[in-house]
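Work Package 4 report. The design task specified in the project plan requires that, given a folded chain encoded as C-alpha cells, an amino acid be chosen for each position. We show below one input record used in the internal validation round.
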C-alpha cells in the first residue's frame, strides 16, 4: 500500500470505527424522530424498574398503555375493549383489582366503579335498553335493590315528560 493510499484508507477506517462506537461510549439521552415503529415500548426509571409499557396484547388490533406502580403492578390501563373497536380506561388498586372503568360501546358510554374486592359494581351508562344508574353484584350478575334506568324516549328522570 502506498503512502498516499494510507492517508485515505486509515482515516476512513478510524472514522468508521469511531462512528460505530459513539453510541456505546456516549449513549444518547434524547432522540428525536418523526415516527417510531416498534412492537412494544417500555419506560423505565433511573433504577431500571419498569414504570410504563405500551404493547399489543390478546386479539389482533388490541393495544394497551399500562402505567405501573413501584411494585411493577398495573395501576392504570388505557386501551381497547375485547373487540378492539372501542376505547377503555381502567384504574386498578395495589392488588390488581379493577376499581373504575370508563368505556364506550356501540350503544353508548359507561362508567363503572367496583368495591375493593371487585364484587359490587356501581355504574352509570347507556346501552341499547336506555340510560341509567345501577348496582350489580359482580359475582352473581344480579341487580342490587337500588337502581334506576330510563328509556331513550324519556326527556327527564322518572317523569316521562
Amino acid at each position: 500500500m502506498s503512502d498516499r493510499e494510507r492517508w485515505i484508507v486509515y482515516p476512513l477506517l478510524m472514522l468508521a470505527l469511531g462512528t460505530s462506537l459513539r453510541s456505546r461510549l456516549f449513549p444518547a439521552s434524547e432522540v428525536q424522530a418523526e415516527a417510531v415503529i416498534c412492537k412494544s415500548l417500555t419506560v423505565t426509571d433511573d433504577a431500571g424498574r419498569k414504570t410504563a409499557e405500551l404493547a399489543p396484547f390478546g386479539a389482533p388490533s388490541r393495544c394497551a398503555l399500562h402505567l405501573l406502580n413501584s411494585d411493577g403492578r398495573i395501576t392504570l390501563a388505557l386501551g381497547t375493549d375485547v373487540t378492539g373497536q372501542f376505547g377503555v380506561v381502567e384504574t386498578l388498586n395495589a392488588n390488581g383489582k379493577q376499581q373504575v372503568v370508563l368505556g364506550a360501546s356501540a350503544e353508548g358510554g359507561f362508567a363503572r366503579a367496583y368495591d375493593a374486592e371487585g364484587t359490587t359494581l356501581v355504574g352509570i351508562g347507556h346501552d341499547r335498553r336506555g340510560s341509567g344508574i345501577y348496582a350489580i353484584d359482580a359475582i352473581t350478575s344480579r341487580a342490587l335493590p337500588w337502581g334506576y334506568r330510563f328509556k331513550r324516549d324519556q326527556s327527564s328522570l322518572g317523569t316521562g315528560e
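The first strand starts at residue 41 and ends at 44. Validation will be extended to a larger panel in the next phase.
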